[in-house]
Request: fold
Amino acid sequence: MADDLQGLIDGAWPDERGRFGEFGGRFVPETLMGALQRLEHHARTALVDDAFRALLGRELSEWIGRPTPLTPAARLGEVWGAEVWLKREDLAHTGAHKINNAIGQALLAKRMGARRVVAETGAGQHGVAAAAACARLGLPCTVYMGAVDVERQAPNVQRMDLMGAKVVPVHAGDATLRAAIDEALRDWVSDPEGTFYLLGSAVGPHPYPWLVREMQSVIGREARAQIRAQAGGLPDVAVACVGGGSNAIGLFHPFLGDASVRLLGVEAGGRGSGLGEHAATVAWGTPGVLHGTFSLLIQDADGQVIETPSISAGLDYPGVGPEHALLHRIGRARYITVGDEEAVEALGECTRLEGILPALESAHAFAGARQWARENPGKRILIGCSGRGDKDLGILAAHGGGR
Ligand SMILES: *Cc1c(COP(=O)(O)O)cnc(C)c1O
Reply:
C-alpha cells in the first residue's frame, strides 16, 4: 500500500475504490453505482483532455475573473506580528470559491449530455453558484434546499430564482443541508443518465471528493505561484476554514509536497465543545459513513448524526471530506476550532484594518491564523479568504455589528 502522504501527492489516492487510505469509498445503493462509475470515467477523461481544459480555463478567466489576487495584509500583519497574505476567493464571481467547482462540473454535465442538473444547498452559496453556472451554459437546474434554510436565506433564494433555477424546499428530516443532500441523491437515482448531480463540497461518494478537489486546486496552484513571486518564497503556514472541506483542500493540495509549509484547517467551534454545540468534525468527530463516504462525523454513541450549529451556515455540516480525515490521521494537516464569538471578532478586525469584509466562514480562518501567529511569531502566513461577507450583514447586525 502506498505511503499515505506520498499516495496523495503522486495520485495513488484515491485508489480505484475511491479510498484515501482508510477513508472515502462509495457507500451507496446499487442503483447509483453505475452513475458514479460513469461520472468518474467522464471526469477522468475530461480532465486530461486539452479541449476541455482550454474551455474550463477560459470560463475561469473570462467569467469568474481568475486568477484571483493574492493581497498582502500589512496592517493585520503588524498587529499579529506576522507577514500575512490573503488569497482572495471573495473576488471570484458570485463572491466565493464555490463557483470554481460549479462551472467545472456544469461543463462536465454538458459534455456528458445531461438534460438537467440537480444540486443541494445549505446557506445558498453553492445553490447560487450552481444556478449561475447552469444559466451560463443553458442547463435546467433544480436546487434542493432545506425548508428552514429557504426561510433564513431569502436573498439567495431570490438570486437562484432570477437565474432561472427551480428551488425545491425540503421539509424532511432536519430540513437543512443534510436533508437537501438526501433529496438531491434521491432525484439523481430516479434518472441517473439524464440528470447530473452537481455536488458542492469535497464530500459524498467517490468520485466527488476527488473531482471537487481537482476543480478547487486552482486556488492553491495560483496562491503558490503568487506567493513565491510576490513574497519571494513559500508560506510557513497555509490556513483555511473547513466545512465540507472544498476551499481548504483546494488551497492545501498543491502544498502537500512542500514539507516546510504547515497546513492548518479551522473548523466551527460554534457555542462550545459539547455534542450538538459545534461543527468541528475533524477535531472532535468519530469515524462513520454519511452521504456515501467513510470519514469523520459528528454523531452520538448510537451513531445518530447530530445537529451542528455554527454562526456561519457554510460550515454547518456534520461530515467532512475523506481527504481531510486522512491528512489529519497522518498529521500532515492540523485542525483546530474557533468559536462563533472569535470568528465575529476576527471578521471585524480584518474589515477595520484591511477594508475587506470576509464571509463568516472565512473569518474562522482569520481567527485560527491569528491564534497560530501568537504561538509562532514572525512567520509568513497564507490565508484562504474563501468568500465575501455581504451575505452575513444581517447576522452581524443581530450580533452587535462585529465591532
Ligand atoms: C460554503 C462555504 C465554505 C465552506 O465550504 P467548504 O467546502 O468547506 O469550502 C467556506 N466559505 C465560504 C465563503 C462558503 O461559501
